Amino acid sequence: MAKNKTIFVCQECGNESLRWQGKCICGAWNSFVEEVVVSGVNKNPKPLDNLRSKPVPVADVKYGEQYRIETGDGELDQVLGGGLVPGSLVLISGDPGIGKSTLLLQIADGISQKYGTVLYVSGEESQEQIRLRADRLGVNSKGLLIVTETNVDVIQSHLEEYSPVFVILDSIQTLYTGNLTSAPGSVSQVRECAGCILKFAKTLNIPFMISAHVTKQGEIAGPRVLDHMVDVVLYLEGEKNYGFRMLRSFKNRFGTTNTLGVYEMVQEGMKEITNPSEYLLSNQSKGVSGAVVVASVENTRPLLVELQALVVSNDLGIPPRRTVVGVNRDRLSLIVAVLQKRAGLFIGSHDIYVSLLGGVDINETSIDLGIAVAIYSSLRDCSVDGKTIVLGELDLAGRVRPIYNIERLVQEAQKLGFKKCILPYANLTKLPKSKIEVIGVKSIQETIELLF
User: Fold this and answer.
1) Coil, helix or strand at residue 155
2) Beta strand 301-313 with 350-356: parallel, antiparallel or unpaired?
3) What is the pLDDT, as a whole number, of residue 402?
4) Which domain holds residue 386?
């Protein structure tokens, strides 16, 4: 006879305890939730005959170039390494309202038009809500089937009945299985449902894509084992107030993670951006003090963006402000200290605001010199030539250190019509001849004298 047992499970790491605890071993507070475990019940029900896997001789296993399913989205195919691999499980996450469901519906429409039946399972929205989004996006494929369901066992029956070539589940936190008594979204349910979906993908040999919520810290909600179970982990990021979106791959068993997909969120859906630098610099400020163009390599993709700084005298007697958008705050404090010590720029009592336009976040040190130049430009109220790009890393001694991927950054700047490039002197030896004028600098003092 089955017996009920009560345990407490941490919703952050999945740690189990016989009694409630205020703090888990993972460091999370108030994360334990009571769950009922039924002993004597088989949590892994017997699979149906058509879902059974069959052993084959190793010599009969085909290998070589893997067959890929093209999604119709060039940016996504690039991030995935050429398309979806049959039997793979892809996890996509991102902040609420960032565009995950919109991107998934566009993917479903592209695959259904080219390959056949696609099953879109939603546990968060009704069929009417999905239809309204589909009309806005222009999605009207007859091969795209929509169902609102959260029971994994019922979803399995839909797979057997319609035999889709691709399945989307939105989202994993809404699914549940009748083998557990805990609520949907709990650690036990997420882990068990992900295991069932993984079994479906491998035995049916069709790709699955599931969406997931994120926590306040920006991490995927649920147990950490979820990241290890899936084949690909994608993250869609961007500022809600801007249309710029970036799709990153943090794990990919079938390709590299050094790729980046770039989109623009418009009324008609997610629009691919083939040249993000040109998009970000379309409204570049020219002749304005405190504005300078910097560059960084995001997952092997060069990205040029305008950086603006504003330095204001603090006459209120309150502690000076350091406000940043898209830039690391600690890095800004370091650069301000270097300017004061090495360049004689006494701005410790000034309010300083630094922003990267377009909703882009860059944590690379290649924009250090650009930040310093923008601060000096704003303080002295003198502008930098709009056709000049500034690259380089600053150390505590005020020296300009070399950066990586300098060839790609200079090539991208030349492609966009820039005339001059200020870069570390040590990078000059690695640069091939180009039409753009490159000037090597060794220190922040030399840079300021050169530009101003």
Assistant:
1) helix
2) antiparallel
3) 93
4) 279-451
